[in-house]
Amino acid sequence: MANGIEIKGRQANLCPYSDAYREMGLSWYNDPEIIALTSDDPDPLTPEQFEQIIQADLDSEQSVVFGVTDEDDRPIGIAMLRTVDRTHRSADLHITIGERARWGKGYGAEAIRLMCDHAFGNLELHKVISTPFAFNTRMIRCLHKCGFQREGLLREALWIGERFIDVEILGRINP
User: 3-state DSSP call for residue 20?
Assistant: First the structure.
């Protein structure tokens, strides 16, 4: 579906993914805390691996990739709608706010709301889901704040490190 369009918020903005996000994105995706909260592979990504992951989404007809900026247009994260299904009118939401100085200040919540507005308005989707690790309580609280409701728990769904972990299923339906 290609790269995202520009969508302005009060403090967070969504914009097309560009080269400005390549180096920063690699450092964000390799941050040990972000890896622990979001990745099923505990090893850092090489630049080539990161590029392959992003490029696969940029090339996919079922993904929309956004850069996330702050109110001064500085890159702070990457957001995606993946597995956009036109038949069932649904998508999976993924977001990483990589700039630690922006954590806990509403940037992620606003970016999620803007993504949902895009999904429901421009893409005419009916439902957006997100599947954070069950111990990623900050993300789960943020999703609830953005109108997502808990739909279930995938018990021991992923083998990470030396243990199985649970995955929450949260969804938001087009109002």
Answer: helix
Shortest CA distance to 117 belongs to which of 175, 163, 74, 53? 175
Contacts of 60 (CB under 8 A, 6+ apart): 1, 82
Report the candidate in 114, 11, 29, 109 with the shortest Cα–Cα distance to residue 66. 114
What's the confidence (pLDDT) of residue 161? 84
Containing 139, the helix (H) or strand (E) segment is helix 137-145
Q: Compute how many other C-beta atoms are within 10 angstroms of the C-beta atom of residue 89.
A: 16
Length of the chain measured in residues: 175
- Return the beta strands (E) in the chain as ranges: 7-8, 13-16, 64-69, 75-85, 90-97, 127-130, 149-160, 163-173
- The enclosing H or E element of 114 equals helix 107-117
- pLDDT for 36 equals 87
Rounded to a whole number of angstroms, the CA Rg of the chain reads 15
Q: What is the 3-state secondary structure (H, E, C) of 145-162?
A: HCCCEEEEEEEEEEEECC
Beta bridge partners of 67: 15, 78
Tens digits of residue pLDDT in 34-89 = 988 888 888 889 999 999 999 999 999 999 999 999 999 999 999 999 999 999 99
How many angstroms separate the CA atoms of 138 and 168, rounded? 13
